[in-house]
Structures are given as C-alpha cells and as structure tokens.
Amino acid sequence: MNYLNDLAADIEGWKRDGRYRTIKVWESGSDTWMNLNGRKILQMSSNNYLGLTHHPKLKQAAIAAIEKYGVGSGSVRTITGTLDIHEQLELELAAFKGTEAALVFQSGFTTNQGALSSILGADDVVISDELNHASIIDGIRLTKASRRIFAHKDMNQLEAVLKETQKHRKRVVVTDGVFSMDGDIAPLPEIVQLAEAYDAIVYVDDAHASGVLGKNGKGSTDHFGLHGRVHIQIGTLSKAIGAVGGYVAGAQLLKEHLIHTARPFLFSTSQPPAVAATCLAAIQVLRDSGDLVTKLWENANGFRSELKGLGFDTGASETPIIPIIIGDPALTMRFSDRLLEEGVFAQGIVYPTVAMDKGRVRLIVTAQHTSEDLAFALNSLQKVGREFGLL
Ligand code: PMP
C-alpha cells in the first residue's frame, strides 16, 4: 500500500474545507512590522506581547551567554545540562511568581506534558475546562488518571464533578489562566473556592497570562490576589517573555518530584545557555518595571473598544487576545488573506482548533504597537469588514 495516497486524501479534504494552510516565511524577526515577500506587513498575530524579542538587555544577555557558555547545553538537565544560569532563572522565576520553587522546561508544551503526567496517577481524577490548550489535553492523555471535562468556565458543572469524584485519591482542576483562542480570563477565585471546599488541587496554565496579567505581569494568581491558594502555576517563556521555554512554579517538593519523574525534563536536552540567559534578563526587566505591561493594557483595551464600536464581534475577549468572530472556515481564511493584501497580518483560526462555526481571525495587540499602527489596523479591518458584509 502506498501510504502517501492516504496522506494525499487527507490534504485534498482540507483543501476542499478551506482548512489547508500555507506557512508564511517571514524575512525579518518578530516585531510590529515584519517583512513578507518583500513587503512590510503590520503584525497583529504575534505572542510577543511586550516586544521583548528586541529588548537590548535581553540581546546583550544572550550574546554574553554564548560567549561564556557556547551555544548548546550538551545534555539533559540531570547530566551536564544544568548550568548556573538555569538555576538562577529558576530562583528568579520563583521569586517573581511568589512560590517556593520553579522548574524550567524546554517549552510550555513539554511543561504541561511533564507536569500533568508526573502528578497524576491511576487513582486520581483530572477535571479540565473544555477550552484548555492542546498541550494540557495531550498531557492528560499521557496519564492513567480518570478524565472529566467541564463546560467552559461553568462553575456549576465543576462543582457537580467535584462532588461526584470524591472517591478519587487526588482531584486536580486544570484551567488556562487566559484562554488562547477567545482571550477571556478563567474565573480563578471561584475555581479556588470550589477546590478548597472539595479538597482539590488547582493547576493553572498561565501561558498567555505571564507578562500580561497581574502586577508587572506576574500572572493570574497575582491578578486575583490568590497567592498561596493556587498549587501549580505553569508559565511559558515563549510569549511575553520573548524567547522559548516553560516552567512550573509551586512547592519545593513538587519541584523535587518533577525532577525525578517529568519525562521531558529527564529525557530531552535543556534550554541552550543563550535562551536561559535571555529569559533571566526578561524576568529581571519585568520585575523592575511594569511600564510595558501598563502600555500593553492601554493598547489592548483601546483597540478592543474601537473594534466593538465599528460593529465587530470580539467574542468574550477581555485581554490583548482579541478575536473577530467570522464563522465559516473558508470565509475566515479569505478574510485573513484579504487583510494581508491590505498590509495587516491576522491569523485565521478555524476548525479543528475552534468549533466549525466559530472561525475567527485572532488579533493580538502588543505594547509595541503605536497609535498609528493600531489606526492602520482598524482602517484595514473596517475596509475588509465592509467588503465581507460583517459591518
Ligand atoms: N499553554 C497554552 C495555554 C498555550 O497557549 C501555549 C502556546 N500556544 C502553550 C501552553 C505552549 O507553549 P509553548 O509555545 O511555549 O510550547
């Protein structure tokens, strides 16, 4: 059998559904304006929330680390791959998050895989919001724990599941801090209250909340004043922090347990020195000033209300992630393509990432967008929105 025929049939199907993707190859680094096919395009879909990818302190830290340590770490963390800058980064992260300890992984994705599969055993139950990120879903799949899903942010359902699952050894409630496709915030105070009432553990993935929510971007636990009441906080170093990597912040015992059990930590080479040094510098920049985070929220709130004023459906957005809900997948992708012709990139997101009738272009506002940039984006969106009969 020619297995390629099978793959080709899948690909044809995606083309028919309008779900086929062409990867864009950018000719300049992550920034507000980026080069694509020789044109300058306004970037409205990057996770570089604070523009830290080009921060001079981060660049200097990366260059100095390459000079001192070379480009690679040489092995997994448990052999020769833990350098003093990895340890400093973990100390700095724990202080930033207000936890006893932190442990760094190679990406946010592997952090969820490692952490969930380490803490959950066959006698446990994991209780997960239906819109949690793919890395949480995959992390859960790696465990032998029972699985229960609750409707998005539905606290009545969560309580019902907590009541029904008392017989399990551990109950772990898992939620994104900020949901990546809709840009809404998890009801963490209510989740914590229920978890305390039913003796459950709270696990929050702050990939899109780190550097965004809370004082100086400390995350959703800080935003809601829940220090000491959220057991496990996940963060990524790839979005607002500007580089790549992920971490678990929590108890020292949790860290020790993960060091012995988390498979991506044990079996995959550690972050390169330049990356660890970059992340360390980024956390220090955030620690010392909240100006970028303040600017991010000014830009995001202003832009969202302008979009709503024009008549766009921005769904449940309450953060710098602002979807424009379009619906049909093919129409969504055409909208995104048309916008690109106008010089603005906003990624179309369609089934299976979101429901079939919930296609959207997902806009992400950053602290680096100027008022001129945002006015340009709004004008282009209004023009294309009218053409597509959305306004
Ligand atoms: N969790 C959430 C909620 C995310 O949105 C993402 C990134 N898409 C990840 C985890 C994975 O993070 P990373 O890109 O650092 O692997």
UniProtKB/TrEMBL annotation:
Swiss-Prot/TrEMBL GO biological process terms: biotin biosynthetic process
EC number: 2.3.1.47
Modified residues (N6-(pyridoxal phosphate)lysine): 239
Entry cofactors: pyridoxal 5'-phosphate
Catalytic activity as recorded in UniProt: 6-carboxyhexanoyl-[ACP] + L-alanine + H(+) = (8S)-8-amino-7-oxononanoate + holo-[ACP] + CO2
Domain of life: Bacteria
Coiled-coil region: none
Chain ranges of the Aminotransferase class I/classII large domain: 40-380
Family annotation (InterPro entries): Aminotrans_II_pyridoxalP_BS, Aminotransferase_I/II_large, AON_synthase_class-II, AONS_Archaea/Firmicutes, AONS_Archaea/Proteobacteria, PyrdxlP-dep_Trfase, PyrdxlP-dep_Trfase_major, PyrdxlP-dep_Trfase_small
Subunit text: Homodimer.
Family: Belongs to the class-II pyridoxal-phosphate-dependent aminotransferase family. BioF subfamily.
Function, as annotated: Catalyzes the decarboxylative condensation of pimeloyl-[acyl-carrier protein] and L-alanine to produce 8-amino-7-oxononanoate (AON), [acyl-carrier protein], and carbon dioxide.
PANTHER family named in the record: CLASS II AMINOTRANSFERASE/8-AMINO-7-OXONONANOATE SYNTHASE (PTHR13693), LD36009P (PTHR13693:SF3)
Xref: NCBIfam families: bioF, gly_Cac_T_rel, PRK06939.1
Record-given protein name: 8-amino-7-ketopelargonate synthase
